[in-house]
Amino acid sequence: MKTIIEPFRIKSVEPINFNTREERIYLLGKADYNPFLIHSEDVLIDLLTDSGTSAMSSAQWAGIMRGDESYAGSPSYFRFRDAVQAITGMPDVIPTHQGRASEKILFSILGGKGKYFISNTLFDTTRANIEFSGAEGIDLLCEEGKHPSVPAPFKGNMDVPALRKFITDHGAENIPLVIITVTNNSGGGQPVSMANIKAVRKVCSEFCIPLFIDACRFAENSWFIKLREEGYAHKTPREIAKELFSYADGCTMSAKKDAFANIGGFLAMRDENLALKCRNLLVITEGFPTYGGLAGRDLEAIAIGLEEVLEESYLQYRIRSIEYLTNKLIDAGVPVMQPAGGHAVYLDARAFLPHIPVDQYPGQVLVGALYVEGGVRGVEIGSLMFGKYDEDHKLIPATLELVRLAIPRRVYTQSHIDYVAEVIIEVFNKRDTYSGLRIIEESAFLRHFTVKMVPVM
C-alpha cells in the first residue's frame, strides 16, 4: 500500500529527446515498421530490452577504474571468477562477451543434426544458436504458462511429464542437454519454482542428461521463490540462488541482465572435459580464457553487479515496480500476462487486437502503435520472433502473441512508468483503428532484428 521508492539516489542524468506524433509516424515508416531500426535518440521511453541497458552503480564505476587490462591472468578475472563461483558453486567459469556467445560455444560443441535441446521456453538467440548447429529446440512449457490472463504462481515451469515422454520417444542419446530459463523470458517473464527445477533434475539424472540453467535473471527468479514457494520465506535470495544452481550441471548467463553490466556473460559448469572443449573454442572465437572477449573493467563491473543484484531492498523494489505497472493496466482492462513477471510487462497482443489475423502480426502492430502514440519502444514476442513456415510457406504461429515492455534496471522513475501506462491505455482505447502488417524482407535467423514490413492495404 505504500509508495514505491527507489533504493538508490541518482547521481547522473541523461536527457530525453522529445519529438511529435507526426515525426514518429515518419520515423516508424522510415524504419520499415521495425522498432529495432529506429535510432535510440528518437525514442522517449526505451523498453526494447533490459539487456545491457541498466544504470551501473557508483561501486561499479569505481570498479571500472580498477579494471586490469592484462591479456592473461588479470586480477579482474579472478575477482569475476570468485563472484560467479560463490553463487553458482561451479568450478569452471568461462567469460564471454555476452550471453549469445556462451550459447554459440556450448551448442556448437553439443549440437548437430538429429539432436534435441529441451527447455521450458527458449529465447530467440538460444534457439537460433541451437538451430544454426543443425539441432532442434523443443519448448515444453507448463499448461498454466499458455494462458496469459489466468494467474498462477510459477507459469514459467517446465512440463515434467512431457519432458519424460519426449526423452522416451526420442532417446536420451539424442538429447545432449536440458536447459531451464529463469525467469522464463519468452513466457512472460514468469518464474520457475524450486520444486519444478528439482523435478526436472530428477528426470535428467534418471536418463543421464545434463541440466543447465539459462541464468540471465536468476536473482529475480530467486526473489519470486522467496515470495511464493512454501519453505523459502525466511531464506535470503543468495541462499535460494545457491540452492537453485546446486541442481544444475552448468549455466549460461548474459551478465547484461541481472548483473547490471552493459556487456558481458559467462559459461559455468562442473564437467571438466566439456569446459576444456569450451575454452578451446573460446580462444578461437572470443579471446584468452581469462578475459573471453571482455575488458578487465567489464569483469570488475560484473563481479560487483552480481553482489548488488542479490540485495533484498533492490529485488523488492524491482519486482514491485513491475507489479505496479501491470496492476495499473489490469485496472484499465488492458489484457496483460498475469501475474506480473520479473523484468517486463507483457501485453497480450492477440487479445489486445483480436481483429488482426496472426499472419498480419498483431504484436508488431501494437509495438508500432505504442511508439507512434507515445514514443515508447517495446518488442514483439510472438509469431514474428518465433513463427515458422510450413512446406507451403504458410505461417506456423507461436504459442503466444505478446509484446514485451522490458524495464531497464535503475533507469526510469515512477513518473516514467505512469507515462507508459497512459500511452498503453490510450492505444487500447483506440485499438479498433489499427490494421495489420506484412513482411517484405526477412533473414533466415533472428528475422525480427532486421525484418522490413509494410501495412496491409
Account of the protein in words:
The protein is α/β, with parallel strands linked by helices and about 450 residues long. It has 2 domains: about 20-50 and about 310-455, Aspartate Aminotransferase, domain 1, CATH 3.90.1150; about 60-310, 3-Layer(aba) Sandwich (Aspartate Aminotransferase, domain 2). Helices cover about 40% and strands about 15% of the residues. The chain has helices spanning about 20-30, 60-65, 75-90, 100-110, 125-130, 160-170, 195-205, 220-230, 235-245, 270-285, 295-310, 310-330, 350, 360-375, 385, 415-430, and strands at about 45, 90-95, 115-120, 135-140, 175-180, 210-215, 250-255, 265-270, 345-350, 375, 380, 390, 395, 400-405, 435-440, 450-455. The strands form 5 sheets. Strands 2-8-7-6-5-3-4 form a 7-stranded mixed sheet, with helices on both faces. A 3-stranded antiparallel sheet has the order 9-14-11. Helix 1 packs antiparallel against helix 14 (about 360-375), helix 4 runs parallel beside helix 5 (about 125-130) and helix 12 packs parallel to helix 16.
